[in-house]
Amino acid sequence: MNIPEFELNDGTSLPAIGFGTVQLKGYSGALTIAEAIRNGYRFIDTAYNYENEGAVGKAIELSGLRRNELYIESKLPGRYHSYDDAMTALQESLLRANLEYFDLYIIHWPNPNEGKYIEAWRALIEAQKLGLVKTIGVSNFLPQHIDHLVAKTGVRPAVNQIEMHPRFNQAVQREYHDKEGILTTAWSPLGRARYLAEFDEMQDMAKKYDVNIGQLILRWHYQHGVVTIPRSSNAARQSGNLNIFDFEITREDMEAVDGLSVPGGRIDGLDPAVYEEF
Ligand SMILES: NC(=O)c1ccc[n+]([C@@H]2O[C@H](COP(=O)([O-])OP(=O)(O)OC[C@H]3O[C@@H](n4cnc5c(N)ncnc54)[C@H](OP(=O)(O)O)[C@@H]3O)[C@@H](O)[C@H]2O)c1
Fold first, then answer.
1. Which CATH superfamily does the domain covering 11-199+227-234 fall into?
2. pTM of the complete model
3. How many CB atoms lie within 10 A of CB 197?
4. How far, in Å, is the centroid of ligand 1 from the Cα of 142?
5. Whose CA is nearest to atom 14 of ligand 1?
6. How far is residue 188's CA from residue 171's CA, in Å, rounded to a whole number?
């Protein structure tokens, strides 16, 4: 399977679709992730807080692929934003996953009231110099948080992983990313499948393109230049979610999907300006 890649501002690139792993833990999690790799995924998204970096490491081992054939991402939790803690957490994540480096390592949440994300970012910059991670980025950062990072360190994140799905299309944040040369990755790209049945317009549109609604949504992200990391424990849906590169949504239909977004459309209302996760 040939998955297109998007260029990053540090000269590397990122597959347009990866595999989300939240809740996929233990032996069954490792088997599900290994199945996803067998079904064609080469980019795996994990996090310290998912408590499954071990399962990801096991899946990598089961895949039999070489390290440089895979693209592995993990995330720094909010409780380890101090410089020394961030360095140790990153190393601990690598040990859990049985890896020598991450392709991408990002700060999971800015936790602005704690005020330590600059310190965490300095640790990531150093970890990149040490070769523990190839690309560094952030997640759930609002424009003011990124402006602050750049003002304090001069180093711009390569990616920002944010909540994005048809109910919350993040048009303003994406415009900022595009202006700053930061790639958008969408978490919960399918809105955790919570609202799929409610979107009659998209059900009809999916029929027209002869795809399922998941494929239509993932293609919509792709045409917006956004990387997605859909999760599925179902082999057929895993494969289907990768199979979105042989049709094109018209401009009119793209705008129709854009129009489904609502201001309070976040799945659980997690606004990074106030929400903090440790
Ligand atoms: N940075 C952050 O703060 C953050 C926050 C949340 C998530 N994430 C990352 O983003 C990843 C993806 O988000 P997510 O797991 O929350 O949600 P998601 O990928 O939007 O949705 C997953 C759900 O959709 C179902 N599904 C998958 N493909 C489908 C299809 N084609 N049609 C219908 N249903 C489908 C899955 O069920 P089945 O398993 O039954 O297929 C599962 O219940 C996570 O796994 C995690 O890696 C990051």
1. NADP-dependent oxidoreductase domain (3.20.20.100)
2. 0.98
3. 9
4. 22
5. 188
6. 16
Please tell me whether residue 133 adopts helix, strand or coil conformation: strand
The partner residues of 185 in beta bridges, in order of sequence, read 161, 227
Place of tokens 């759930």: 140
User: Tokens in use for 266?
Assistant: 């976040």
From the candidates 50, 71, 105, 222, which is the catalytic residue?
50
CA of 238 to the centre of ligand 1 (A): 11
75 in helix, strand or coil?
A: strand
CA dist 219 and 199 (Å) reads 16
Nearest to 146 by CA among 180, 185, 103, 100: 180
Q: pLDDT tens for residues 179-230?
A: 999 999 999 999 999 988 888 899 999 999 999 999 999 999 999 999 999 9
| Strand ranges, E, within 46-145 | 71-76, 102-107, 133-139
| Interval between CA 255 and ligand 1 midpoint (Å) | 23
